[in-house]
Amino acid sequence: MEAMTFAQKVLSRASGREAFPGEIVSAKIDLAMSHENAALVLRAFNEMGAKEVWDAERMVLLFDHRVPANTIKAAEGHQAVRAFVRAEGLPHFYDLREGICHQVLPEKGHVLPGMLIVGTDSHTTTYGALGAFSTGIGATEMAAVWATGELWMKVPRTFRFHLNGRLDGPVVAKDVILHLIGMMGADGCDYRCVEFVGPVVDAMSISGRMTMCNMSMEMGAKAGVAFPDQRTKDYLKGRTAKEWKPVLSDPEAQVEREIDLDLTGLAPQVAYPHSVDNVKPVEEMAGIPVDQAVIGSCTNGRAEDLLAAERVLHGRKVPDSVRLIVVPASREVYLWALESGVMASLVRAGAVVTNPGCGPCLGAHQGLLAPGERCIATTNRNFRGRMGSPESEVYLASPATVAASALKGQIADPREVIG
Amino acid sequence: MRGRVWKYGDHVNTDVIIPGRYLDDYDVRSMAKHALEDLDPRFARDVAYGDVIVAGRNFGCGSSREQAPLALKHAGVGAVVAISFARIFFRNAVNVGLPVVELDATGMFESGDVALINLEKGIIVNETTGRTGRFEPLPDFLLDILRDGGLVPHTAKRLY
Asked: Facing residues of A126 across strands?
């Protein structure tokens, strides 16, 4: 057999034949995730005339986008999905209490290396941090997955990023991925499987790798992956009893592009409005006043993110002119932050804390922006109108940069606050 | 199919096609009412049945929300023509029965021109200027989904 990439290996196993880049295969899905838009999936599922789901064990449903329900229509959507979960006896359903899908699925041990995972959310690429091939799909095709367990997929070509050197001070995975998106452009990795390798990735926590894989889709990637190592083993230990084997690219496998970067000395990065690839080092935009600062989301709402913000804010006060909103990504993260004292410290510094969920990231609730307002956020998109008024602006950065900016009331370099 | 052209630029994202603040509502008429609202407030008001959107690179980037192609389809859009599409939007559009055309020469259209498209043959004509363009037709199995009116009727046909 020819040498194969990670993407080829997963899709070959899932389709039961040797799969080559560019080919379209019908793949058997290992895990299917939906959040609130399960209501839309359900409608298509019923319209198709499907009688029952293909495999309840392989489905995970949860609510995170609008929890607790923010409108009557959202409540009706929740109600319809809950009724379906009961009627079908689906064993893996997390109601409003657990948090964001992309945090909860790994935490609860649903994600294993080498799996083929689809979700009705574009940031489903996050699970690549544990070595899964994982991608976002639409609601109607998810209904077909619920009914048949299969989906057509084009086998992607691969881009490999060798990330060399080391990150300094408060510079973290978010700065790296913003830098890569700025370099590649919003469609620079369209349809590709993106592999992250090298010393910077080896030194990165699973949390950091989740940030990288999560935002790989903002440069168009179909999937992003960091290959399993000891950190992956440690993360999965106690979360799953299932056996797993890492799936890796063969060393001689054909890769479309190899990109070598030395990240030593990389500065904190910020994405300007209104596109995620409009990225510059923080010093180029320091001084822009902000009205709101958001720390949270599937990109950066984990323990290490809250801790990075706390290090900047500890013993300090956010001015009254800035609304600092903190959204833990999950109940597990929330409890950790409460029990470790990190949450108390953030609240003392002036943060408003909301329940685990997507929070204001997608402009549904919990911190919408008025015309003319500016927000700096650890979230993943800064499109026009994303977080409220189309006349508002969103800037994207790391937790430390957002915390430093909240403190100063303007976009600020975290290295100047914590040295 | 034939329709009047609405021309837009690169990276038209799903947040401007249908903003997150309207996503709690799964009623397609309500989606259609807000289609492209944050990019072009005139669009939803003036779009006519069969009109064609012509755009640049990476059309439909961002969220996986299927409400994006649904909003365009139910606003009356007959097809979206772009230099390239973001992958989830492309899949969703086919699945909800909204034709998508990848065309390099989108410069052959201006807003208000009339476009004539033959999806099977891969031919597109600007009836206003007389220019003709060619594109790679979709693979047969995707054209089949479009002919059936989307993945729901297509799958229903296969299941029973």
From this structure: none
Shortest Cα distance from A64 to chain B (angstroms)? 13
CA separation for the pair B150, A153 (Å, rounded): 17
- Angstroms from B138 CA to nearest CA on chain A: 13
A103 and A231 housed in the same domain: yes
- For A404-415, write each residue's pLDDT tens digit: 999 999 999 999
B26, A190: Cβ pair inside 8 Å? no
Evaluate whether A120 touches A101 at the Cβ level (below 8 Å).
Answer: no
Please tell me the distance from the alpha carbon of residue A354 to that of residue A359, in angstroms, as a whole number: 7
Helices and strands (H and E) in chain B: how many: 7, 7
- Domain harbouring A147, CATH code: 3.30.499.10
Q: Which residues contact B71 (CB under 8 A, 6 or more apart)?
A: B17, B18, B28, B31, B32, B34, B35, B36
**Structure confidence at residue A39 (pLDDT):** 96
Q: Do residues A200 and A102 lie in contact, with contact meaning Cβ atoms separated by under 8 Å?
A: no
Sort out which chain A residues have CB atoms less than 8 A from B16's CB and list them.
383-385, 390
| ipTM for the assembly | 0.90
β-partners of residue A196 are: A161, A226
Both tokens assigned to A56: 């309840």
In a domain, A38, yes or no: yes
Q: Distance (Å, rounded) from C-alpha A181 to C-alpha A176?
A: 9
pLDDT of A309 over the 80 cut: yes
Residues 6+ apart with CB under 8 A from A238: none
Cβ contact (<8 Å) for A138 and B64?
yes
Residue B37: give its domain's CATH number: 3.20.19.10
Distance between CA atoms of A248 and A234, rounded to whole angstroms?
Answer: 18
Report the SS3 class of residue A276. coil
Write the residue in B87, B92, B96 that is nearest to A191 by C-beta: B87
The reply to whether A212 and A334 lie within a common domain is: no
CB B54 within 8 A of CB B115: yes
pLDDT of residue B26 exceeding 90 = no
Shortest distance, CA B112 to any CA of chain A (angstroms) = 25
Q: How many helices (H) and strands (E) does chain A have?
A: 15, 18
Chain A residue numbers with beta carbons less than 8 Å from the beta carbon of B148 are: none
Residues of B in contact with A368 (CB under 8 A): 21
d(CA A173, CA A209): 7
- B129 three-state secondary structure: coil
Q: Is residue A169 part of a domain?
A: yes
CB contact under 8 Å between B84 and A187, yes or no, is yes
